[in-house]
UniProtKB/TrEMBL annotation:
Domain Phosphoribosyltransferase: 6-208
UniProt-annotated binding residues for 5-phospho-alpha-D-ribose 1-diphosphate: R79, R104, D131, P132, M133, L134, A135, T136, G137, G138, S139, D200
Record's keyword annotation contains Ribosomal protein: no
One family name in Pfam for this protein: UPRTase
HAMAP family: Upp_B
InterPro entries hit by this protein: PRTase-like, PRTase_dom, Upp_B, UPRT, UPRTase/APRTase
GO molecular function, one term: uracil phosphoribosyltransferase activity
EC number: 2.4.2.9
Similarity annotation: Belongs to the UPRTase family.
Activity control note: Allosterically activated by GTP.
Descriptive protein name: Uracil phosphoribosyltransferase
Record text on cofactor binding: Binds 1 Mg(2+) ion per subunit. The magnesium is bound as Mg-PRPP.
Function: Catalyzes the conversion of uracil and 5-phospho-alpha-D-ribose 1-diphosphate (PRPP) to UMP and diphosphate.
């Protein structure tokens, strides 16, 4: 079963409070999402494998450590996921970035893929899907389906705020995908919004309605 990691670092929790606050405007919202994504990237990379190599310092020969694992790819779910990409790239600047675009069919309410572009070496990479919100879980499950269909073997899902409903759906549909969140909220409302949540992440990031 997928593990769920809640990043309760004080800096993440502090910034998340202002991300949630409806008085926070677009510019500040965008900056805060970027900062929290960086802090979350620090936590999510904690278990990256390292290996020992030998180097020569100006003083002596030393055995020191470098990253040894697979290469990373970050995949934002369009559109709101874009707001988290630069923050993660600050810590993993060599990562490749794929994109998955989903819209919700107005009749079925199910997410439909309208765009997908991934790095060529899908099977060789560790993927981190980023999206600020995990609500019903429909978008996340569809994005994971899309990566797996194209050959991805290692996937993590990272978001700011999750509803219990969304976490459950990923755990049922994709038990191999661990979930990394800044906060686990109470529930969904009748319109599929997370309560207390932060409202519509895409609209708040891009200043649209
Ligand atoms: C938001 C959010 C997630 C999705 C979560 O995107 O960024 O992708 O909703 O909801 P779910 O878990 O119920 O699928 P939205 O569909 O509003 O699109 P946008 O990013 O273009 O605003
Ligand atoms: N998508 C959002 O942007 N916000 C929510 O609360 C739920 C889905």
């Amino acid at each position: 079963m997928s593990k769920v990691y809640v990043f309760d670092h004080p800096l993440i929790q502090h910034k998340l409070t202002y991300i949630r606050d409806k008085k926070t405007g677009t510019k500040e919202f965008r900056e805060l999402v970027d900062e929290v994504a960086t802090l979350m990237a620090f936590e999510i990379t904690r278990d990256m494998p390292i290996e020992e190599i030998e180097i020569e310092t100006p003083v002596t020969i030393a055995k020191t450590k470098v990253l040894s694992g697979k290469k990373i790819a970050i995949v934002p779910i369009l559109r709101a996921g874009i707001g988290m990409v630069d923050g993660v790239l600050k810590l993993i600047p060599a990562a490749k970035v794929g994109h998955i675009g989903l819209y919700r069919d107005p009749e079925t309410l199910k997410p439909v893929e309208y765009y997908a572009k991934l790095p060529a070496d899908v099977e060789e990479r560790d993927f981190i899907i980023v999206d600020p919100m995990l609500a019903t879980g429909g978008s996340a499950v569809e994005a994971i389906n899309s990566l797996k269909k194209r050959g991805a073997k290692s996937i993590k899902f990272m978001c700011l705020i999750a509803a219990p409903e969304g976490v459950k759906v990923i755990q049922e549909e994709h038990p191999d995908v661990d979930i990394y969140i800044a906060a686990l909220d109470e529930k969904l409302d009748d319109h599929g919004y997370i309560v207390p949540g932060l409202g519509d992440a895409g609209d708040r990031l891009f200043g649209t309605k």
